[in-house]
């Protein structure tokens, strides 16, 4: 189970994360952030494989990726 | 157990970048900061930022920083490194700064084989001043000072900095990389790391040219800019390692 | 103490070494070449760095790097080279970095020639580069004073976090004079520089060497801070020499080589019954204005002697402030005033001529 966190207030809505996500689960939100951009967000978090490709592509370093590892 | 797969590197401050949406400067900043973190160099690194879009880089790198006058970052870095030979010194420069007004400084820093690392960001345009033609602007590329497209008769042809510097004995590592997709970003980081490793090994001058986008001044969306870079810049500025010392191959 | 015969340019170098400077960056230009020649040999002997840069532009920016890293550092050049350095000097001022810049002046404008001149007075004391600022400008007039002034230059630079300029000319640079040198050299104490950008080394907050103040309010604040500093410097660091001034009816004035000539004219004039005296500014900025104002109370007239078309004379006029006439005698373009011609000018003025 992975969690992708966007620092929404810093997202400039450039969509580069959307263009590289292999699972196609990132979209721009309907609402605006304080800068007037539609921030990126993950719609189906359960499909996230924690590959962090979105985070590596993000020019504004707004994405953090955390993976829950199964307890043995 | 929660495992952090990706987080902001310590060698970046928490300050928000001022760059335009989709500008890949931010990716390059992050890669440099990650390399500094991973090599354990945050405590002894001194960076020099240029004049241009990355003029505020001193606010973003969480290390001691200098702001240099236009084009002179390699001279400033030389002054620092000659006083503090054990420190890690890098310059971060754009194409107007390095390839136009600062050509003398970069050529001679390379010729002296100053033990510094230069990150050269090439986006084929002056950004901060309003999208003017750069020495790296492609033939036919429209800018605010080449409104009919760059003309060979009027402006000559672009400067291929990496190829030019690689002819100097003092430039021991020269590579051109790109950050237009995740695969290339991984390769770019490897090259940047190598350029810092070469400095730490005391081998001499190392430069990584990074092809970058400028959606605002190219008049394209961030996604279109990525495509434009891949289709137009890479053919003119081929990626690869032009020079590499045997010690680190 | 030993007495040693030294060239002025070499004295600049030895003075710098004795002041604890271990990093010199420079580019060849006549007539200051003996200085880099000297330091190229001497710096490695004391564990220092002599680096020949690719241009004066680079020299001054290497100084910016070294000064920002917290080291005593300097560069030197001659007039055209100084023109190239002006941008860098303005940045050094903006970032409040201490350093020493030497100008062994030559004939100008343009490529001019390599003969001695003082035509860079304006450039030195009125800014030179862009923006609102002053440099502390020292003008020694003998080889001994050069050695002593180099220590003063580095100390003032560190104390006030400002570039200090030392100006000479081709004559001062190339002439040989005996100087007293201490046999034991104790390196001076250099003040701590907690602002230096030299690597965090355990510090939490990065140091930033910067002259960018993008918010106008902040930039104005920088200017106000600089000028508050300049007020302190003017109050505490103004230096000058007075010679036979007490009862002088005509006051000669000049700096550097021109002052040496003027001083000899004072003696000749006195021997012919003319009450002449001399004011020699040692700091061109801050300018010793009050000394002129005081002298104007008893002197009838002033004669400013320069190796230029008349630059310092403007500051003398401002200092005298219309109380007495201020005359000018100068040679320029590398020509040096002759004592007999200056004396003739003094006699003419004392006889009531203009």
TrEMBL record, chain A:
UniProt keywords, alphabetically: Iron, Iron-sulfur, Metal-binding
Domain (4Fe-4S ferredoxin-type) ranges: 2-31, 39-68
Keyword Metal-binding among record annotations: yes
InterPro entries: 4Fe4S_Fe-S-bd, 4Fe4S_Fe_S_CS
Top-level taxon of origin: Bacteria
GO molecular function, one term: metal ion binding
A Pfam family this chain is assigned to: Fer4_7
Protein name, UniProt field: 2-oxoglutarate ferredoxin oxidoreductase subunit delta
TrEMBL record, chain B:
UniProt-listed Gene3D superfamilies: 3.40.50.970
The keyword Oxidoreductase is annotated on this UniProt entry: yes
InterPro entries: 2-oxoacid:Fd_oxidoreductase, THDP-binding, TPP_enzyme_TPP-bd
Entry keywords, A to Z: Oxidoreductase
GO molecular function: oxidoreductase activity, acting on the aldehyde or oxo group of donors, iron-sulfur protein as acceptor; thiamine pyrophosphate binding
Occurrences of domain Thiamine pyrophosphate enzyme TPP-binding (ranges): 58-210
Spans annotated as Disordered: 132-152
Biased composition (Polar residues): 134-147
Source domain of life: Bacteria
GO biological process, one term: cellular respiration
Name assigned to this protein: 2-oxoglutarate ferredoxin oxidoreductase subunit beta
Organism: Desulforamulus aeronauticus DSM 10349
Lineage: Bacteria, Bacillati, Bacillota, Clostridia, Eubacteriales
Automatic annotation (TrEMBL), chain C:
Record domain Pyruvate flavodoxin/ferredoxin oxidoreductase pyrimidine binding: where: 14-192
Pfam families: PFOR_II (PF17147), POR_N (PF01855)
Stored InterPro entries: 2-oxoacid_oxidoreductase, PFOR_II, Pyrv_Fd/Flavodoxin_OxRdtase_N, THDP-binding, Transketo_C/PFOR_II
Domain Pyruvate:ferredoxin oxidoreductase core residues, every copy: 248-342
GO molecular function, one term: oxidoreductase activity
Keywords: Oxidoreductase
Top-level taxon of the source organism: Bacteria
Transmembrane segments: none
Protein name: 2-oxoglutarate ferredoxin oxidoreductase subunit alpha
